[in-house]
């Protein structure tokens, strides 16, 4: 059913974008309300997934612009995001979890468009063609957004590491 | 190759989108430049972290909230959506213009003068129509008086034209 197959994907997309669990739940509900209202406008010849994710992406970015979440901090990197690696090999796992924590918090420093491109490509593992369809932009622009996002995140991580080494 | 150029090529390098020459140039630069080498390894770690973010499951509470939407929506189905329909836009535009005119009139500082002006124009209009009506009536009665003469003249026109042929 529609809700079962899409709620998880939309919720995760919202959580990665907004960084807050409650916010992501509210966003997912609002996106489904929007979906029910927009279903009559859906063109049956179009790919439903891409159409729905476009709707979800547009809603998240519009909402972001209205509420300016960048002023808020993201949820603590907590039990939701901690993988099992940390427990398998404690020392190595700790470093990796620390890196993940930095990246998770740094996502908020990316502009909403770039953040969304990085989420779709690197967290959700979508193909560039799919992302271009969702964002409704040429492939080149999508790639450039992903590249810029990765570079920004890598620079933040590098700076933090350098600062830690100096201490 | 400059550091700035290499920075831009790091992500395409990871995606294996560079030509052999570009790839070699990036590798050569990274070997000698500590700064870019660190940035490259940071980008690798960044990508690794992003890929490893776990996919969370949806809470029962959220699922309930989503399943409750259709009935909720139906209950409140009567909405003001029709106001947003494109076909309604000319009506909204006309209403806006009308409201603007009304508000301009209502809040005009010399409203009495406007009223007088409108009154005068209306009266002038009335008197013009009255005069026209009187003229039309006069024309109709004078036509009636000369009806016979006109008919005779019209009858005479046809034979004359035949003679000319």
Task: Output the number of helix runs of chain B.
Answer: 8
| Portion of residues within helices of chain A | over 70%
Number of domains of chain A: 2
Q: Do you know the CATH architecture of the largest domain in chain A? A: Orthogonal Bundle
Average of the residue pLDDT scores of chain A = 85
The biggest beta sheet of chain A is recorded as:
none
Please give the count of helices of chain A. Answer: 8
Tell me the structural class of chain B.
mainly alpha
Average pLDDT reading of chain B: 86
Please, what is the oligomeric state?
heterodimer
State the low-pLDDT regions of chain B, or none.
none
Shape call of chain A: globular
Describe this structure in words.
With 167 residues, chain A is an all-alpha fold. Chain A has two domains: 1-75, RNA polymerase sigma factor, region 2, helix turn helix motif (Rna Polymerase Sigma Factor, Chain: A), CATH 1.10.1740; 110-167, Winged helix-like DNA-binding domain superfamily/Winged helix DNA-binding domain (Arc Repressor Mutant, subunit A). Chain A has helices at residues 2-18, 21-38, 48-67, 85-88, 90-106, 112-123, 128-135, 139-166. The termini of chain A are far apart. The mean pLDDT of chain A is 85. Chain B is mostly helical and 165 residues long. Among the domains of chain B are: 3-52, no CATH class; 111-165. Chain B is built from eight helices and no strands. Chain B has helices spanning 3-14, 20-32, 34-52, 60-67, 69-75, 89-106, 111-145, 147-164. The radius of gyration of chain B is 44 Å and the shape is elongated. Chain B starts with a helix and ends with a helix. Chain A binds chain B through residues 3, 7-8, 11-12, 15-16, 25, 28-29, 32-33, 36-37, 80-81, 83, 85, 96, 99-100, 103-104, 118, 122-123, 125, 143, 146-147, 150-151, 153-155, 157-158, 161-162, and chain B through 7-8, 10-12, 38-39, 42-43, 45-59, 61-63, 65-67, 69-70, 73, 81.
């Amino acid at each position: 059913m529609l809700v079962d197959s899409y709620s998880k994907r939309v919720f995760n997309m919202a959580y990665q974008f907004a960084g807050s669990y409650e916010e992501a739940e509210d966003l997912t509900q609002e996106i489904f309300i929007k979906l029910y209202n927009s279903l009559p406008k859906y063109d049956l010849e179009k790919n439903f997934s891409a159409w729905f994710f476009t709707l979800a992406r547009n809603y998240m970015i519009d909402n972001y612009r209205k509420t300016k979440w960048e002023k808020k901090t993201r949820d603590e990197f907590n039990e939701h995001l901690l993988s099992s690696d940390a427990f398998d090999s404690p020392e190595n796992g700790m470093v990796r979890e620390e890196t993940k924590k930095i990246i998770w918090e740094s996502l908020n420093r990316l502009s909403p468009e770039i953040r969304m491109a990085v989420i779709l490509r690197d967290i959700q593992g979508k193909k560039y063609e799919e992302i271009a369809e969702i964002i409704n932009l040429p492939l080149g622009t999508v790639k450039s957004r992903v590249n810029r996002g990765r570079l920004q995140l890598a620079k933040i991580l590098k700076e933090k590491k350098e600062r830690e080494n100096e201490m | 190759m400059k550091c700035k150029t290499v920075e831009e090529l790091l992500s395409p390098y990871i995606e294996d989108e560079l030509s052999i020459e570009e790839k070699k140039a990036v590798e050569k630069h990274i070997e000698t430049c500590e700064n870019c080498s660190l940035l490259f390894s940071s980008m690798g770690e960044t990508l690794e972290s992003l890929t490893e973010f776990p996919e969370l499951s949806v809470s029962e509470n959220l699922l309930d909230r989503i399943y409750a939407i259709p009935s909720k929506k139906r209950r409140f189905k009567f909405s003001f959506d029709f106001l947003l329909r494109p076909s309604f836009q000319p009506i909204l535009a006309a209403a806006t213009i009308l409201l603007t005119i009304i508000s301009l009139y209502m809040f005009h500082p010399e409203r009495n003068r406007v009223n007088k002006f409108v009154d005068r124009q209306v009266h002038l209009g009335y008197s013009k129509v009255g005069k026209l009506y009187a003229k039309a009536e006069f024309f109709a009665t004078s036509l009636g008086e000369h009806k016979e003469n006109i008919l005779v003249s019209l009858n005479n026109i046809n034979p004359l034209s035949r003679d000319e042929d």
